[in-house]
Amino acid sequence: xxxxxxxxxxxxxxxxxxLPDALADGEIGMTTDTGEVFIGAPNNPKVQGRHSYPxxxxxxxxxxxxxxxxxxxxxxxxxxxxxxxxxxxxxxPLIGLFPSNTRDFAVFDFSLMKSDGTVKVLGEISACIxxxxxxxxxxxxxxxxxxxxxxDLSNAFKLTKLDNEGHTDSGxxxxxxxxxxxxxxxxxxxxxxxTTPSIS
Length: 200
Hints:
The chain is mainly beta. It contains no helices and 14 strands.
């Protein structure tokens, strides 16, 4: 009589910030925060020695990649994320945007809504990302449209490696907002594009 044995295989997993420079050749790894899947390829000449995310790993497309595509060294993420910014608050990291090792340039759409759900501002944020210190990055805000809004957003946003719990080990660059407008606002971010040049 034959014996049937059922085994479970679990692949390597961790956050996107914990993705190693190279999974073992042929090893499969999954990011628990972004749902991405990679296979290690440290000997593949197309990714060998690559110092930018996802390093010496090849990304496997899944159903979660409908809004996440890779075009060379340019990455796009279209999912909507939101967070509440309390009235008259100092700098508070609200939304994790992209891997903290990203450098060069990023641009994304944003909106600000009042507590009653009315949209007050639609705009775009662009940033020249400093390679070693996100807090020193140049961040520019462009208001595309606004409804009854007189607030100055030129110094309302910055990038930081601090997460919303004050830690620096999340592996992400965060968008922080300084709300000096006297009202609670909900910040929504979507349509992120950033580059990670393949240079050391």
